[in-house]
Write a structure and sequence with these properties.
about 250 residues; mainly beta; Jelly Rolls; eight-stranded antiparallel sheet; 1 helix; binds magnesium ion
Length: about 250
């Protein structure tokens, strides 16, 4: 057992270690977007789709964009195939939920374009950002080997998925995600990093991973204090990625 003073010292040490990790190596080994990092093993997923449970908040069921807006607060300019899906439109920007969320279970189905164009990160790229800043990557990772910390189901720039459970381009895939946001004290210091557990097509790909900070291409940024509830963001990265059956359950 620690005394409260010792606890304080232990948590300061923990924050120090975390912040050192932010600008350096992930898991003490790998540079950001390190191409020498091993590729996750390939796993063929079984059939998997989850209809929303009774206590879920429906964020998108194919009928309209009523729960979404642009980052500037304007109407969504993505394509709506009514009753079916929404689709990213190049150049129209990311979209965010109108409501804000903290800890949650998020379920989302997505499909990258059937026609393969581009390579690496330029192939079916999108993403789900929790709290508008922490991305789990969407990408066509089927027979595609981008840098491991940038493939589908990676915590972008930080942690590859445990396995590659990708389906073929054009097929519907799913993320079922448990998100625990970071905790900051009254002075804005990090007390507890964000954590994520995620299933890709029903297969565990992130196992209570502790994020090192917010997402940025080629950079590992330290945490910066922010509200404990913020919108969820879907990324427009030029590619015509589709989404359907999006729901959320808020967690204590
Ligand atoms: Mg992305």
């Amino acid at each position: 057992m620690f005394s409260s003073n010792e606890c304080w010292r232990v948590s300061v040490l923990g924050v120090l270690v975390l912040s050192l990790g932010c600008n350096g190596l992930a898991n003490g080994k790998w540079e950001i977007h390190d191409v020498n990092r091993p590729q996750p093993p390939i796993v063929t997923p079984g059939e998997y789709s989850v209809e929303p449970p009774s206590d879920a908040i429906i964020l998108f069921d194919g009928s309209d964009f009523s729960n979404w807006q642009s980052r500037e607060g304007d109407h969504v300019q993505w394509k709506l195939e009514e009753g079916q899906y929404m689709e990213v439109v190049d150049g129209t920007g990311d979209i965010i939920t109108r409501d804000s969320f903290g800890d949650c279970q998020l379920y989302i189905e997505w499909a990258v374009p059937e026609k393969i164009e581009g390579h690496g990160q330029g192939r079916g790229n999108s993403g789900v950002f929790f709290m508008d800043r922490y991305e789990i990557q969407i990408l066509d990772s089927y027979e595609n080997e981008p840098y491991p910390d940038g493939q589908a189901g990676s915590i972008y720039g930080q942690n590859p998925p445990l396995v590659n459970a990708s389906r073929k381009p054009g097929q519907w895939q799913s993320f079922n995600i448990i998100w625990r946001g970071p905790v900051f004290d009254d002075n804005g210091q990090l007390v507890k990093p964000a954590r994520i557990t995620a299933f890709h097509n029903g297969v565990l790909i992130q196992d209570n991973f502790e994020l090192t900070g917010p997402t940025r291409h080629k950079r590992r940024l330290p945490y910066q204090a922010h509200p404990d509830r913020l919108p969820i963001r879907l990324q427009e990265h030029e590619d015509s990625v589709r989404f359907r059956n999006v729901w959320i359950r808020e967690l204590e």
